[in-house]
Write a structure and sequence with these properties.
Layout lengths: L2 H14 L6 E2 L6 E2 L17 H11 L2 H47 L2 H62 L2 H18 L5 H23 L5 H13 L5 H33 L7 H9 L12 H14 L4 H23 L5 H21 L5 H33 L10 H32 L3 H4 L2 H27 L1 H5 L8 H6 L2 H29 L16 H36 L14 H20 L27 H5 L3 H17 L13 H21 L5 H19 L5 H31 L1
Helix pairs in contact: 4-5, 4-6, 5-6, 5-7, 6-7, 7-10, 8-9, 8-11, 9-12, 10-12, 11-12, 11-13, 12-13, 13-14, 13-16, 14-16, 14-19, 14-21, 16-19, 16-20, 19-20, 20-21, 20-24, 21-24, 24-26, 25-26
């Protein structure tokens, strides 16, 4: 609003305000909030003090300021007077207009009283004439009404006399509804005068109506009659006060038997279809599912559909409203059996398209039946049934996938007679990889169809389906790990580096299978889990129906950790099994002969060839499964330290034989002191998933076992020379298998040194006996 109107409003508000604290501000014309206390120098407040105001002005302003303040205050007083004058004029004009309006109203009402008196006189005249007409016509009207009552009575009497004839015509035309209506209309007259005036008519009518009742009963039990006609018959019997309780019981039993027959035929059809499923092509599964779920079998075209059953239920509800509970039980049992057939089918291998087709057929029937019998709560019942079916389908799919992976691992294992070991392990590994990754992706595609379908029933289960799929993968990989352990034998995994040698147990598990499992575990950890996680994140995100307190359904980090650990254990188990097998060969070699009486060597012992054959077999298996290493890690030429043992050379044997016992003991001391100052060499490193690493580790273990077997024996000169010959022959072939020549040289020298120590020990023993 403009400044003038605002100022006027504030002035009026301060003038008419009953609040003593309301008033103007410190300056002239300035409004002050009523929440603040007015000061004595406020010119617009009730507590204004002129002396205080003037004293403040004199203190604040000079002479020119006082003159200016005087001019402003005079102008403001003039403006206030003008505003008040205008307000008075405006209110005066309004009072004048109100007075003129009242005068006009008074002038208009003056002539209305005469008009009202004229209207009253006319109404009174009309009323008197109307009374005169009614009085003159009263006798004639009474006579007409009496004649009309007589005519109606004669019509009723004529109807009673004609009733038997009418009922006969209705029976002949099968118009039972008209017959019942006629008889009910005449029944009050028969009750009042049936024993006197209309005795013959009553007897003939009752005979006719008894025939009607008999025909209606026959119509109810006649299966060829439509359900609407049978329902009408029951309603007519009720109108005739015929007892229908026994009729209701019989009809409900008949309906129950009918539904049981449908279920039995339905079950037989499902069983035959399931038998056919075992020998059918995948393209025939959809046709079989239609045959199972339809209420019409291929051989019975007259069987009622669900739509006809819904009409029957609707008619029963109309005829027998108190039979609702029994009808609910029958319908729920019918759909329970139908969902049970699907659950039986789910146990077999089937696609999600077939599951959706079967559920959709039943859901359409549920919607149709729910419109008739909503109290049965069939949608909620179907939701629980579909929930159980979908969860069972997902669980069964993962079980089949687990079986496929197991078959890929076990059914393709080689037999020694076939001679195809060189490629069988690789085929087994590739088949297992395909079974894991492709089988998982195929399952995700199947489960994706469940989410993409627009069926209302599945839309309510979307979050649960996502959780079930993720839980399924978590459980699948955990069970797969347990299955791997079962294939290898849990006892071996518990202690894969055990030193106990049990040939019978080693032969029970194929070493190639253990190596395949090790590499397959690495594949699952590095490739399968990330790929499956990407697909789950793209298509199965969300969920959360299981509750956040239970944590995520699928934890890929945990699965990767499980298979990383499993791969390492399987690899160590493979190395241990191969080492045990070779150690058995070495044990037989060193425990069988008498080394103290060994003859001079003429050729390399046969165990060397057997050892190389075993290592070659290991190489064949490893090359099929494991990749080659990138670089050779340690060669003899790269070693900078001394790896030569400082033990006595065998050429000093003649010198040792000529020394005394004290010299021999000094030599032992020198040998052990030399070990303390040799450069330390890392012999046993972490096993890598490469051909060279696995073979090197097996050879190192075998050489250490060889060294231990040597230390348990005592050798004469010829036995020691045999050991030298065998070890020297093994040097070059072993270096072809490994990537660490220095370690092999070191271990071979350790074996020679151990044999030399045992020979010196024998010499020392003989010298000691001679001295004694």
């Amino acid at each position: 609003m403009d400044e003038k109107a605002k100022r006027t409003r504030e002035l009026l508000a301060s003038f008419y305000s009953t609040d003593p604290s309301a008033g103007g501000g410190a300056g002239v014309g300035a409004a002050v909030s009523p929440r603040k206390m007015a000061s004595p120098d406020s010119i617009n407040s009730l507590s204004f003090d002129p002396d205080v105001y003037m004293s403040l002005l004199v203190q604040k302003l000079n002479l020119e300021g006082l003159l200016q303040k005087h001019v402003e205050m005079a102008a403001e007083i003039k403006n206030l007077d003008t505003d008040l004058q205008m307000l008075v004029y405006e209110n005066y004009n309004k009072f004048i207009n109100a007075t003129d309006t009242i005068k006009r109203m008074k002038n208009n009402i003056v002539g209305m009283e005469a008009n009202m008196e004229q209207l009253l006189a006319k109404i009174t005249s009309v009323q008197s004439k109307s009374d005169l007409v009614n009085t003159s016509l009263f006798e004639k009207r009474e006579h007409i009404e009496k004649l009309h009552r007589t005519r109606n009575l004669l019509r009723k009497v004529q109807f009673i006399y004609d009733l038997p004839t009418r009922l006969a015509k209705c029976i002949k035309a099968e118009a039972y509804a008209d017959a019942v209506r006629f008889f009910i209309g005449a029944k009050p007259i028969f009750e009042a005068y049936g024993d006197s005036s209309f005795q013959d008519c009553k007897r003939a009518s009752e005979e006719a109506i008894d025939l009607v009742i008999k025909n209606l009963q026959a119509k109810i039990y006649l299966d060829s009659e439509p359900i609407e006609a049978r329902a009408e018959a029951v309603v007519l019997l009720k109108q005739l006060n015929f007892p229908v309780d026994s009729l209701k019981t019989k009809l409900l039993e008949k309906l129950e038997d009918y539904l049981m027959t449908l279920q039995d035929e339905h079950k037989e059809t499902g069983a035959s279809a399931m038998d056919t499923l075992e020998t059918s092509e995948p393209s025939d599964i959809g046709k079989l599912s239609d045959t199972i779920l339809s209420l019409k079998t291929p051989t019975d075209t007259n069987m009622a559909s669900v739509g006809e059953i819904s009409k029957i239920i609707c008619a029963y509800l109309i005829i027998f409203p108190d039979s609702e509970r029994r009808l609910i039980e029958l319908i729920q049992d019918l759909f329970t059996k139908r969902y049970g057939i699907i659950e039986q089918r789910v146990k077999e291998r089937m696609t999600s398209a077939d599951i959706l087709k079967m559920i959709r057929v039943i859901w359409e029937d549920v919607i149709l039946m729910d419109d008739v019998l909503a109290e049965a709560a069939l949608p909620a019942f179907s939701l629980e049934a579909a929930r159980s079916i979908i969860r069972q389908f997902i669980s069964t799919s993962f079980s089949h996938l687990l079986l496929e992976v197991s078959d890929a691992l076990t059914k393709s294992q080689p037999t020694p007679q076939k001679g195809s070991e060189e490629s069988s392990l690789q085929n087994t590994l590739e088949g297992s990889k395909k079974a894991v990754i492709q089988g998982s992706l195929d399952l995700l595609l199947e489960f994706r169809q469940l989410l993409d379908d627009n069926l209302e029933l599945l839309a309510k289960l979307r979050d649960l389906i996502v959780d079930w799929v993720q839980e399924g993968f978590q459980g699948f990989f955990q069970k797969l790990d347990e299955q791997f352990l079962g294939l290898c034998g849990r006892g071996y995994i518990a202690n894969p580096i055990s030193s106990v040698i049990d040939a019978v147990q080693v032969d029970k598990v194929q070493t190639g299978l253990v190596l395949v499992l090790a590499q397959l575990s690495v594949f699952i950890e590095q490739i399968a889990i990330p790929r499956i996680m990407e697909e789950i994140a793209a298509s199965f995100s969300g969920g959360g129906a299981r509750g956040y307190e239970h944590g995520p359904a699928f934890v890929p980090g945990e699965i990767c950790r499980i298979f990383r650990s499993a791969g390492e254990r399987f690899l160590l188990l493979y190395i241990n099994m191969k080492t045990q097998k070779i150690s058995i060969l070495l044990k037989k070699r060193f425990t069988t002969p008498n080394w103290t009486k060994h003859k001079e060597p003429r050729e390399v012992h046969m165990f060397v060839d057997l050892l190389l054959q075993e290592l070659e077999a290991v190489g064949i298996e490893v090359r099929q499964i494991l990749p080659q290493g990138l670089v050779r890690r340690h060669r003899h030429s790269d070693s900078t330290g001394s790896t030569n043992s400082s033990r006595s050379n065998p050429t000093r044997e003649d010198k040792l034989t000529r020394t005394n016992t004290q010299r021999v003991r000094s030599q032992f001391l020198e040998s052990h002191l030399a070990k303390l100052f040799e450069q330390k060499m890392e012999i046993f490193t972490k096993v890598q998933y490469t051909q060279e690493s696995v073979i090197s580790t097996i050879i190192k273990f075998c050489l250490k076992s060889l060294q231990e077997f040597v230390r348990l024996q005592t050798f004469n000169r010829s036995g020691f020379q045999q050991i030298q010959l065998d070890i020297e022959f093994l040097k070059n072939p072993l270096k072809e298998f490994v990537d660490d020549d220095a370690a092999i040289d070191f271990l071979l020298k350790e074996v020679i040194g151990a044999a030399h120590e045992r020979r010196v020990y024998l010499q020392l023993f003989f010298k000691f006996n001679v001295i004694q």
